[in-house]
Design brief:
By secondary structure, the protein is an alpha/beta fold. It has two domains: 24-55 and 202-287, no CATH class; 58-201 and 313-323, Rossmann fold (3-Layer(aba) Sandwich). The protein is built from ten helices and 15 strands. The strands form three sheets. Strands 1, 3, 4, 5, 6, 7, 8, 14 and 15 form a nine-stranded mixed sheet that branches. A four-stranded mixed sheet has the order 2-13-10-9. Helix 2 packs antiparallel against helix 9. It is globular and about 60 Å long. Bound molecules: S-adenosylmethionine.
Length: 324
Amino acid sequence: MIDQTGLYQLQDLEPTAAEFATAVSAGLSATPRTLPCKFFYDAAGSVLFDRICDLPEYYLTRTECRILARRAGEIAALLAPYGSLVEFGAGSASKVGLVLSKIQRPLVYVPVDISRSHLLAGAAILARSFPRLRIAPICADYTQPFELPEIAAGMAGGAAGFFPGSTIGNFAPDEATAFLARARQILGAGALMIVGADLQKDQATLHAAYNDAAGVTAAFNLNLLRRINRELGGNFDLSGFEHAARWNPGAGRVEMHLVSLRRQSVRIGEERFDFAAGETIHTENSHKYTVEGFGAMARAAGFEPVECWTDEAGLFSVHAIRAR
Ligand SMILES: C[S@@+](CC[C@H](N)C(=O)[O-])C[C@H]1O[C@@H](n2cnc3c(N)ncnc32)[C@H](O)[C@@H]1O
């Protein structure tokens, strides 16, 4: 059934407040303290992420879009046998149009995202630009199993996957391998996946990208504490914490932290968490790859590298991999 925005019925598997509370309690009780980055994306966090994508320092989005635009014809040709396209972490679904514009045949598009309002808004905009596209959104945590909607599962040619934004870099290498293996199960043997992965580069470029001058990344990071206050009855004083993004050379990743600026106690519901001055909450990782390293990981997850496209400066890579 199609609604007034042109979308097939939403499959709603949004994580519950209880799941959010359990994850927050476990993460803040751990040493060192952590919070899962998937909870950044409430409605406000998703809007802030879109603003990050437009920042001059955030080379990732514009570089990936340039690669996708230049290679759209080749990507569309690789996708030709498939009847549906599943986008993991679709967000505002602003990149897939670059490829869809080269596809004229009937296709089912399945955007999957944890942020329901943003998912539906992005999908509705896409429906207006591509009126013949059949769009069947799923609000879900893609680290958990889910099934493709009937309309997608029923399409001849099977499903292909799209995972842009270097969102795969948010996973530790073993988690990224497990994610790809799970995607392979959801999509099926023979599935093609198009994955965007950020490349290793100089620290100054990385530092600027994750510590932007306008403070949008800081606002995005701190918004997680605001969300905990609002949804879980927390009393974080946001002025008592500061955003920090640091390169971890051993792990090959940029880490985002929230640094406690003083000794302080925070209550969330019935629980109390005591922070020392300088103690951090580790909120996100962004792993940086080499083309070879990404290929090895894809192989370990049951895929064969098919194609890899990069920009002239070697900042970003887009991979086509096929499930064995
Ligand atoms: C880094 S943003 C990328 C957005 C967009 N794909 C792009 O390339 O600009 C990550 C996206 O994945 C979603 N996301 C993050 N973790 C998720 C999870 N565990 N399950 C489903 N969606 C998730 C977020 O809501 C957000 O839209």
